[in-house]
Amino acid sequence: MVAIVGESGAGKSTLLHIMAALDTATAGQVWCGGRLLNEMDAGEAADFRNRELGYVWQAHYLLPEFTAAENVAMPLLARGDRKPAAMKAAREWLHEVGLAHREEHRAGELSGGEQQRVALARALVARPKLLLADEPTGNLDNRTAESVFQLIERLHEQHHLTSVLVTHNTAFAARCGRVLRLDSGSLQQVKGNE
């Protein structure tokens, strides 16, 4: 689990977007899982994102007209999985994040912490190897942020993920195995691999 820290505007979110093949680097090469992201066309990049990584944003970006289970199933449906199998997987992940009892609720009926748990389940439903999280607790109160971060830690460990988190929360960053600071376009190691 790697934390990326740095001042506001340093480019932390941009770095995650490049790692997720959402943006293209202006120079150099970007490799992820043995694949050169710079050379992917839009379709290959979308397939890479859908199959290889999960992304959690600071804002949950749940679709308000759909239930929690339907929101979680979206990545599977987008790649062509059959609806019964996608919904079964979505319900399993909602159970995994402690929200089995909320699967039929729409986004607006969920608390902020519940919405972020649904977003985390959606990011992991396709069983990616890499989890990218951009300030996943930034919009939450301290107690809820702690419970969401504990959930990320547990899922990281149980599902053998590689996780990269952008955070301003120094206490959460300190709990990661490695901490990198982005400053003036350069990453410096703060903690880990000593």
Structure notes:
The chain is an alpha/beta fold and 194 residues long. It has a single domain (2-191), classed as 3-Layer(aba) Sandwich (Rossmann fold), CATH 3.40.50. The protein is 41% helix and 18% strand. The strands form two sheets. The protein has a six-stranded mixed sheet with strand order 4-5-6-1-7-8. Strands 2-3 form a two-stranded antiparallel sheet. Strand 7 (178-183) and strand 8 form a beta hairpin.
In short:
The chain is of the alpha/beta class and 194 residues long.
What does the secondary structure layout of this molecule look like, with pairings?
Elements: E1 2-5, H1 12-19, E2 31-32, E3 35-36, H2 42-52, E4 53-56, H3 68-78, H4 83-96, H5 112-124, E5 130-134, H6 142-158, E6 162-166, H7 170-174, E7 178-183, E8 186-191
Parallel strand pairs: 1-6, 1-7, 4-5, 5-6
Antiparallel strand pairs: 2-3, 7-8
